[in-house]
Structures are given as C-alpha cells and as structure tokens.
Design brief:
The protein is of the alpha/beta class and 169 residues long. The chain has four helices and seven strands. It has one domain: 3-Layer(aba) Sandwich (Rossmann fold), CATH 3.40.50. The protein has helices at residues 5-15, 37-54, 70-81, 95-105; strands at residues 20-23, 34-36, 61-65, 85-89, 109-112, 126-129, 137-138. Strands 4-3-5-6-7 form a five-stranded parallel beta sheet, sandwiched between helices. Helix 2 crosses helix 3. The two termini are 27 Å apart. 34% of the residues are buried.
Length: 169
C-alpha cells in the first residue's frame, strides 16, 4: 500500500515535528528563512481553509508556477489535502505555453510570484500572488484559522498532473 502526500506529511510531522522541513536559500521577504514540519503543516492547513472558502474542492485543479520556496510546498500540501490536483508550471514557460497548459488541464487557479504574473492568463482564472503584491489575491489573505475539511483521499487519486515537452523519456 502506498501513502498519499498528506499521509506522508502527517507521518513525518508525528515523528519529527520540530525538525527543519524546508530552508530557503534565497531571501524572500514574505517568507521565513526556514520552517519546521509543524510550521509547514500549520501554513498548509490555514491555506486549505482559505482555498475551501474560495470554493476549491476535491478534484479541482490548481496550477503552481514558481521556483522552489516555502509557499510552493505549503500550496502543494494544502491542495493535495483537499484532494485537488497540482499542475506544476515551469517558470520559464512562455505566456502562450502557460495558457495552453492551464486551458488543457482545466486549472481554476494559478499560484505564482508577482514577477511571473505577466505570463499568466488574465481572464477566466483566479490568480494567487505568492508575494502578496497588489496584483491577484494575496497568498497571506488565504491563511485562515480553522480546521480544513477531512477529505477522503485514496492512493489512486491523482495528486499531480505534470506536463512535459516530451524530452523526459
């Protein structure tokens, strides 16, 4: 039997709550330098509550376009906890490539830093700004207190839908 992404985090959280889960190598003013598994879990839980308030539910598809960072990890965990599909987008994609993947995947939301917003579709999709800038919904505004709903997730449920250029084999 395989573990789901949320089950894996829960197991790790139980065993190592105060160990460092992620360390940023570059300064990001909106994010801490490092987070423990407990802190990552808390951020993901709060984001899951905010996403539910936006109307996100099991089976919804949300794209993430960013280089690795703490908020990327929290978003991935929040989305998979809700039974959503994560659509990772390479930050080097052109606007037309991004639009094509967003359209084909059926993504309802794109999470990205403000510097990449010029590559995102401007209509027909909710945009969440990792940098909390003026454009899009600020990420921190979705970090809401409360308990995310308990969604039944099966090991056969899709967690990530990755698009490639066909060069991966």
């Amino acid at each position: 039997m395989y573990m789901t992404i949320p089950e894996f985090l829960d197991r790790t959280l139980t065993r190592f709550p105060d160990r460092i889960a992620i360390r940023n190598t570059k300064e990001k003013p909106q994010e801490p330098r490092e987070v423990t598994y407990r802190e990552l879990d808390q951020m993901a839980s709060k984001l899951a509550v905010g996403l539910v308030k936006m109307g996100i539910m099991k089976g919804d598809r949300l794209a993430i376009m960013s280089r690795p960072r703490i908020r990327f990890a929290a978003a991935l965990l929040a989305i998979t906890r809700l039974g959503g599909w994560v659509i990772p987008l390479d930050p080097t994609l052109t606007p037309s490539e991004v639009a094509d993947i967003v359209d084909r995947s059926g993504a309802k939301v794109v999470l990205a830093p403000g510097e990449l917003f010029d590559r995102l579709p401007s209509e027909g999709i909710e945009r969440i700004n990792f940098d909390d800038a003026d454009e899009g919904t600020p990420f921190s505004s979705l970090l809401l207190d409360g308990s995310p709903p308990q969604v039944e997730i099966d090991e056969k449920d899709i967690a990530v839908l990755a698009y490639t250029s066909g060069t991966t084999g």
